[in-house]
Sequence to fold (235 residues):
Amino acid sequence: MNDNVLIVEDEAKIAELLRDYLSSSGFTPHCLERGDQVIDWLDAQPPEALPVMVLLDLMLPGLDGLTLCRRLRERWPNMAIIMLTARVEEVDRLLGLELGADDYICKPFSPREVIARIRTVLRRTHPVTPAPDTGAPESSPLVLDHDGWRALADSQDAGLTAVEFQLLEVMFNAPGRIFSREQLMDHMYRDHRIVSERTVDSHIKKLRKKLAEIWPEREVIHSVYGVGYKYEPLI
Ligand code: CA
Fold:
């Protein structure tokens, strides 16, 4: 599974907001403004680069979201689709039409909500099987896919950003070792950019939250009071 997400939205501000949030959440967004550009654009993509997800606005110039959703379903049944609509009442109508969209989001939405919905839909539509060549022992419930920058917890992609992945990887490769915030910063920012220790804490917090979405009962990253953090594998 790649990280490509196609945003089809004619309101520039919304498209821009979605694009920014998707990129900072580790996705690779691409935006189109018109409904009638979509099929041609998808046809021009190499199969491995086809987006795993399309965020599709309902009201679009050229070709409306409803028609487009049906056509996408016929051509690319594995592509997840989330419809964006302007009104809550629309959702009931859309559900009745059985367009085959995987989810519906009403505007105005919070970007956080959109990302959470995307992850939920992708988990359902693209269950991940860990690659056999990751080097991790088979029994490990956490597998890091170094080339794909993905952390798989019980085979589910935790959806980490690049920074979160790097942080996890550093600790994962030295189980039980305590890392100070400064050591973690050195690994994260090879260009020695000045960031505060709070930045590390905030990335760790997000990383833990994402892992907790998959493993609400378990904890693999532990705080060591006054020192830093360590990774303890689950047994
Ligand atoms: Ca629109």
User: Anything to note?
Assistant: The chain has two domains: 4-125, 142-231. Residues 197-214 form the longest helix (18 residues). The chain has a mean pLDDT of 84.
